[in-house]
Specification:
InterPro entries: KH_dom-like_a/b, KH_sf_prok-type, KhpA
Subcellular location: Cytoplasm
Radius of gyration: 12 Å
Subunit structure: Forms a complex with KhpB.
Number of strands: 3
Helix content: 25-40%
Distance between the termini: 24 Å
Structural class: alpha+beta
Low-confidence stretches: none
Number of domains: 1
Protein name: RNA-binding protein KhpA
Strand content: 25-35%
Organism: Streptococcus suis R61
Shape: globular
Number of helices: 3
CATH topology: GMP Synthetase, Chain A, domain 3
CATH class: Alpha Beta
Order of helices and strands: HEEHHE
Strand order of the largest sheet: 1-2-3
Mean pLDDT: 90
CATH architecture: 2-Layer Sandwich
Length: 80
Amino acid sequence: MDMIENLIIAIVKPLISQPDSLTIKIVDTPEFLEYHLDLDKSDIGRIIGKKGRTISAIRTIVYSVPTSDKKVRLVIDEKE
């Protein structure tokens, strides 16, 4: 696991009701390093928060971590 993935886990796990269902998939695109958070459907609202404030705060923290030459993108996916 890399530093950003560990940071995401440390922030997100305490906020969700089913922390064992959290999985993170890293997708490397030409411009971005995308971190796809697969969450249980019941936890998506908790991560987004009122008016998107929680996910906005999480993204601000994650985006502040210095990376090589690519931007970081955080994507929330629903577990199927």
